[in-house]
């Protein structure tokens, strides 16, 4: 395990893209199966680049290759300049067209009331390459971020639209803090909260 290594943006976005391609949110946002993998990699890659700049990306390597990724946002992270390209809405529009981008953007805006108002760590993305799942890598890559959050007295917020991962987060100290349907016919998003005082032992 290496914490916050000099991983490159291509390494990180490739694992994220492969891991998230079947996520309900991504299937809804990028409905064209033929282009979804590249679209997802481009989309999540934008957020990964920002996390890398802030120094809040943890990875696990096996035989030199990145196989698991966790990206974080902390309260004092700098806000990206409005001049930085591509912009989040601009990239989404380029990938799916203005009409669907508007629908997705409106759906994502429904998440905002679920974000805690108190300072917190945000686990933005947690991913394991599909070929390496089932080996405890998600827990391994998660550990460093949980230690950092606890040292700073921060609870951890996350969101997921994938019901299959909720039990994993529950075993590791999270509980559901809210739910919202992102759109008619769209996925349900579950917000989860892990208190700062949650222990690290026994998590798996």
UniProtKB/TrEMBL annotation:
InterPro entries: Acyl_CoA_acyltransferase, GNAT_dom, Trichothecene_AcTrans. The lineage of its organism: Bacteria, Bacillati, Actinomycetota, Actinomycetes, Micrococcales. Keywords: Transferase. Transmembrane segments: none annotated. This is Acetyltransferase. The keyword Disulfide bond does not apply. One of its GO terms (molecular function) is acyltransferase activity, transferring groups other than amino-acyl groups. PROSITE patterns: GNAT. Gene3D superfamilies: 3.40.630.30. CDD domains: NAT_SF. Residues 57-197 form the N-acetyltransferase domain. It comes from Cellulomonas carbonis T26. PANTHER family: GNAT FAMILY ACETYLTRANSFERASE (PTHR42791), N-ACETYLTRANSFERASE DOMAIN-CONTAINING PROTEIN (PTHR42791:SF1).
């Amino acid at each position: 395990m290496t914490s916050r290594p000099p991983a490159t943006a291509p390494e990180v976005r490739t694992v994220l893209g492969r891991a998230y391609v079947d996520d309900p949110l991504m299937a809804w946002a990028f409905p064209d199966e033929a282009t979804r993998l590249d679209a997802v990699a481009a989309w999540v890659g934008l957020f990964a680049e920002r996390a890398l700049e802030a120094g809040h990306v943890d990875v696990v390597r096996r035989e030199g290759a990145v196989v698991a990724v966790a990206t974080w946002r902390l309260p004092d992270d700098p806000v990206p300049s409005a001049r930085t390209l591509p912009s989040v809405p601009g990239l989404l529009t380029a990938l799916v067209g203005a009409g669907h981008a508007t629908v997705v953007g409106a759906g994502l805006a429904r998440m905002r009331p679920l974000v805690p108002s108190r300072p917190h760590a945000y686990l933005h993305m947690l991913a394991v390459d599909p070929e390496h799942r089932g080996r405890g890598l998600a827990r391994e890559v998660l550990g460093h971020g949980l230690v950092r959050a606890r040292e700073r007295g921060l609870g951890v917020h996350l969101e997921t639209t994938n019901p299959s991962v909720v039990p994993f987060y529950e075993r590791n100290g999270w509980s559901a803090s809210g739910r919202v349907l992102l759109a008619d016919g769209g996925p349900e998003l579950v917000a989860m909260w892990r208190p700062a005082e949650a222990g690290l032992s026994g998590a798996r």
